[in-house]
Design a protein that fits this description.
Structural class: alpha+beta
Number of strands: 19
Order of helices and strands: EEHHEEEHEHHHEEEHEHEHEEEEEEEE
Radius of gyration: 21 Å
Helix content: 25-40%
């Protein structure tokens, strides 16, 4: 029997989540699955030792068995009073009953709704689909509609966080020369009316209480240490809340119409046959992003750049369930240990508008 858990991360201050190509002066509002996986594995290695983490990674690399767990990327949640709104990435296919003859609807759908509240996501992609009371056109005209989408906080995503530049000064160790620069930070909503943070899903193909307990301990350590960049300044610290799925979430993961699947994580594979099938699938709709970064545990003391790889992004849609792999991104000359990037995918079944 498989087990699903939902983990909420409530940040104690600011955070910096870098993305390849956006520069240190910018920050994302969330963390993708490969970065989260790497952070968990790094802490797991420090807590339980090199032998334990090596055995765990071997389970992920074994082809004959499913991975011990799969995780989604992190996404925004917002709590107002007792109601929690979970935002999911909008699948890259139109929802059931999508009207295809209205330009105003398309502009709002395309530009303002990159993430959907859980109840709207479920209705559009697993239920009856788009309804006439979904007031996208009205919202475009006056911004004050009280229809289904506004009441579900579909347009409130941008109120959950703020991004701002933080001025910093770097001092050269030899010349003592100074260099003024900015780094981008994100501040999640924390006030008396509402608070927000990040959440992710974790799926265990079979019950494993020991691994669950170990990962909860890893998350506690990671929360004290911080997730993302600028940790030496206290950024990225959080408290984690590990929950079972509520009834709505349980219905979403148990949905049985397996016509299509949409990614909640990044997805990578080097299986040429599967990759060809995905690319040649006329029903697929996907986005590909490049993932890179640095190795912080270089024996020389200098950071080395990992090998860059290209992955399918969250929201990509396929007509069969994508099964990803760990990618070996160890830089040339680095011999301490293998460096992996997780392309192991977590997806949900959906139904979409017929062609």
């Amino acid at each position: 029997m498989s087990v699903w858990k939902l983990v909420r991360l409530q940040f104690l201050g600011t955070a910096h989540f870098g993305e390849l190509g956006i520069g240190i002066e910018e920050t994302s509002e969330r963390v993708r699955s490969d970065t989260l996986f790497s952070a968990l594995i790094a802490v797991y290695a420090r807590m339980f030792g090199s032998q334990a983490v090596s055995e765990l990674l071997q389970q992920f690399c074994a082809r004959e068995n499913p991975p011990p767990f799969c995780i989604s990327s992190t996404f925004i949640y917002q709590q107002v009073a007792d109601k929690i709104t979970y935002y999911l990435p909008k699948p890259l296919r139109f929802p059931w009953n999508y009207p295809d003859d209205d330009l105003n609807f398309f502009k709002t759908y395309k530009k303002k709704l990159n993430y959907l509240p859980l109840e709207i996501w479920q209705r559009w992609y697993q239920g009856e689909g788009f309804a006439d009371s979904d007031e996208l056109i009205t919202y475009t005209n006056d911004g004050k509609s009280q229809g289904n989408l506004n009441q579900a906080r579909a347009f409130a995503y941008g109120t959950c966080y703020k991004k701002r530049p933080l001025p910093k000064v770097a001092i050269d160790r030899v010349t003592r020369a100074t260099n003024f620069y900015h780094t981008g930070i994100v501040q999640f909503q924390q006030d008396s009316q509402a608070h927000s943070g990040l959440y992710f899903l974790i799926h265990f193909p079979c019950v494993n209480k020991t691994l669950e307990h170990d990962l909860q301990a890893v998350l506690k350590w990671l929360g004290d240490e911080g997730l993302g960049g600028e940790r030496s300044s206290g950024s990225g610290q959080f408290k984690a809340k590990w929950d079972s799925l509520c009834p709505t979430w349980q219905q979403v993961v148990d949905f049985k119409d397996n016509s299509y699947y949409t990614l909640l994580s990044l997805f990578w594979t080097n299986d040429e046959q599967k990759l060809h099938e995905v690319i040649a699938d006329e029903k697929a709709s996907y986005e590909i992003i490049e993932r890179g970064g640095w190795v912080s545990s270089s024996p020389s003391g200098y950071q080395l750049r990992r090998k860059s790889i290209r992955m399918f992004a969250e929201g990509s849609v396929f007509s069969s369930e994508p099964i990803g792999k760990l990618a070996d991104v160890t830089p040339l000359g680095f011999t301490n240990h293998p460096i992996y990037r997780s392309g192991i995918s977590l997806s949900l079944p959906i139904k979409v508008k017929s062609e």
